[in-house]
Every structure is written in C-alpha cells, then in structure tokens.
Amino acid sequence: MTNVHPEVGWSFENSYSLLPGKLYSRHNPTPVRDPKFAILNESLAKSLGLNVNALKNEEGLDVFAGNKIPNGAQPLSQAYAGHQFGHFNMLGDGRAVLLGEQITPLGERFDIQLKGPGRTPYSRGGDGRAALGPMLREYIISEAMHALGIPTTRSLAVVSTGESVYREKVLPGAILTRVAASHLRVGTFQYIAQWGTVQELQALADYTLNRHYSEIKNTEQPYLSLLQEVINRQAKLISKWQLVGFIHGVMNTDNMTISGETIDYGPCAFMDTYDPATVYSSIDRQGRYAFGNQPYIGVWNLARFAEALLPLLHEEQDQAVKLAEDALSEFSKLYKAKWITGMRAKLGIFNEEMEDESLIDELLDLMKEHKADYTNTFRVLTYEKIENSPLFETSRFSKWQENWQARLKRQEESIESSKKLMQNSNPAVIPRNHKVEEALKAAEEIGDYSVMEKLLAVLSNPYTLSPNQDAFCTLPNPLDGPYQTFCGT
Ligand code: AMP
Ligand code: MG
Hints:
14 strands; about 40% helix; globular; binds adenosine monophosphate
C-alpha cells in the first residue's frame, strides 16, 4: 500500500519490513537539537518526485534531521554481517535508519536512509552519529561518481544537527540522507546464512530477485542466475572504478551491494599519480584494498556471497560448490573484457586487435615510471593540452605515441570519431583530494559553502571540456605530503 503525502511528495512503501524479522529492527531516529540544511540536492529531489520548495520548509528539514517521521515511513535499521579486512563479524546499521522506499513518479523504488541518526540496536560501542566533514565528503564524491556514469548510492541532503560528536576532537554533527537502489549487501546474505534458516535465506534471495533481477526470477535455476548476475554487475562496477582511478578504500563484504552500486564512501579517494599499489586509507596498512587489488578483492567478496547462497544452489553440497566455482571463475574474464573495452575507448579505439593490451600496458608502465597523473595523462591525450610532465618528454613516450597513432589509422572510424569516443571516456575533471579538502575546510571552519558548490557544479559535467575546470585539475603540492583518508568518522 502506497502512502502519498501531498505537500512534500513522500510516497513510501516498506517492502523490506515484510522480510523475516531477523533481518531488521524497527527503530526511530533520535531527534537532534538544532538542525540546519548544509546542502539539498534539488535535482535528485525532483527526480524522486519531491517538491523542493516544500522540502526546504521546516517540515522537510525535520525529516532529514530525524526529528519527524514522514507519513507512510516505517523506520528500521537493517541487520547484516561482513568480513572486515578478512575477519567475519556481526555488524548491522549502527548509525543508519531506513525511513522507507520512495516510489518515484516513474514507478522506481529507492531506499531513503538517514546516516548518523543516533544509536540503533546494532550500534555496539558507537554513538550512531556522524560528523559534518565526512558526510559532506560522501555527498561530493557520490554525486561526482554519478556524474561520471558509475553506479552509486546518491546523496539527497546533509543537515547539521547543532550537536557535537566526539572523535579524536570535538566535531560538528550531521546527518546524510542516502538514496540507494537498495541497501542489500553481500553481508546481508552472510548474516542470514549464518544465523537464519534456509527458508529465511530463500525469502531474502526471492526478495532480491524481485527487487533487482526480475528478468531472471523465472529461469530454471534462479538462485544460480542471481549469483551470475551479481558477479556480472560487480565486474562491470569495479572495471569502471579502475578506468577512472577510484579507490574504494574499504571493500569489506558489508560494503559491497547486491544491486551493483558503489556504497560506503568512507576512506575512498581518487588516485592522482598512477601506481597500482596506491592506498590512502590510514587503517589499510597491508594494502589489502590498494588500487590494483580491487578486482581480486571483488572476486574474494563474491566468493563469500556464493558461500552464503550454497544451500539454494543445489541439494548436494558438492554440486552446489561446483556451480558456485564455475560462476566465480567467470569474474576475471568478465572484468578483463569490460576493462579492456573501457581502456580501448579511453584511447579512441573502436575495434579489437591482439596487441591492444600491450599498447595499454606500455602506457600504464610509462605513467608509473614517470609518476604521471592518471586523469591528466588521459586528459592530455584527449584534448592535446600540453602539460609539463616528464612523461611527455621521453623518447619511449614518443615511440608509444607513434604506435598509438598508427593503431588509430588502422581502424575504419575517423580521427574525429576517435576524439569523440575519448572525450566521452576520459573525465576532464575528477574530485581531486586537495580540492575536496579545500571545500570541506571552508564549510566546516567558517560555514562557507560556496567553495563546495563551485566544486559540485564543475564535477557535475566531467565529460565536456570547459575553462572552469582548469582550477580543479591542478596537482597537489608535494610539500603537503601523502594524502590520507579515515574510516567511520
Ligand atoms: P563502515 O566502516 O562504515 O562500513 O562501518 C562498519 C560498521 O560500524 C557498521 O556496522 C556501521 O554501522 C558501524 N558504525 C560505524 N560508525 C558508527 C557509529 N558512529 N556508531 C555506531 N556504529 C557505527
Ligand atoms: Mg559500511
């Protein structure tokens, strides 16, 4: 039953609460003292069928602050488990409340979740709260990912709470409203496989098929198809991360979605200097989640998903394991094919030649050797914008460029079409770490949101070159030292 609240346009359903009770706890957000809008995503609000003017009123603000429950919402926190840095733990929404599922005017279903709304039954020792800086950071990077064409959860609003949160220092508190195709995670399946019955596991799998994979729910082996499709979507997602130089930073199984969206923007960052060993997260000391490891961790996580599904794949365990292994062995082929196609496009190549991979590898090798900036190197190749980089002065690069040009001439498509393909495949701007930090500093320290708004405007259109981008493409000052990111703040 859909409940329509005419002023704001909330139109909630609560299908998750029809799942076995073990999967969630009904729970309301804890009200906050003095909420204020930090930012509202007006275009996203409109696409969800919300009335922006009404949202900007106190009533809209109170919903984003957790001070008022909108009509039709039945708030809950979700239970899940997960392998964190390889170790299995019971987790759950320790600082999140799902208000419900908004049904858009086009009939799509999106989770509306508050992140940072106070303690929940899954909070363990945590305060259930979030700080303003990290919530604004998630807003900036998730919206940049969306503009880059990468499947992702989105950010509808950030409100400051007027309350402090206590971390290493006292920080201003905030709540982010996250919008997602769903919050089903690999960890949700791990949780029910560990502590539920096979019937409960099946109920979760059926729900997932209905919600995200309805086209395969009537196949002969729907649960095997589910596994194959999730593998396919993750291969696609991770190839997209690799193509733009995105480092997730904390690819624990609870931070991998079943829908194939990027989720959990904690310690993530975009790589500047190209190096597969790049790690920004302060807690990832072993480099488990380094840039070049992401596809391997992806398949490791998917193996945990496959394990959770085993009882549904076949009655005989041996057979189930065989089916799971076969499905998992496809990941590397799927990933590689998507990555090579993407890399060809970044170089303006339409058709396939055997030697393409070595052409790509040679460029990446050169970038690594000369510590070249990943995004800006492709930007130079795309727009022929000359830049002072040692890479472009080497004879090895000249040789590579000759080979590349010769390769382009061997295809039917014109050089003009190649250029167009490159422009659509190489972002002219990304959320550079030092630019994001600059925007956050202005917002956090002096309440100046104009820096962030300018950055967001530029990031919203990454595949068209514009002079407004120039100030956002500069490299960090090496004297500032290596960049570091932090979890769970
Ligand atoms: P994450 O690193 O964001 O994936 O979070 C890992 C786990 O810690 C999840 O179960 C979160 O809900 C929980 N968590 C993170 N921050 C807090 C907090 N401030 N209070 C309670 N639980 C938290
Ligand atoms: Mg998480």
